[in-house]
Amino acid sequence: MARYSNHLPLEGTQLVEVRGGRPRLSFDDPKHSVLDIHGEFHVRASGAESYFSPLEPGVVNVIESFLEVPIVSARADRHGQLRISFEDGRELFVPDGPFENWHYTNDEGLTVHGGVGRCVFVQR
Q1: pTM value surpassing 0.85
Q2: Domain span at 58
């Protein structure tokens, strides 16, 4: 059954692993949440914003800077944008794009895709 909700179940969790290629982020929740980033993303910190391609050299190091920092909010809007806010004030933002720029999955059957002007939640 497809439905729309703007919250991903990541609040209170922490990023515990980042794998390269196109970044795959794993979290410390009991649902074994995983986020794949396939499109450009931004990091906002102290009023500055930096832009990254998921395949550029060193991008895994950028994402690893979020390791073990608690997540205070993870929201997807209906246009396919994803914003994850961390306890230290930084944000990871994946904008909408011409492709599905990000994919979230967990062991409870929740799959969320964002991009191409939309966000789709599927619970199996």
Answers
A1: yes
A2: 2-117
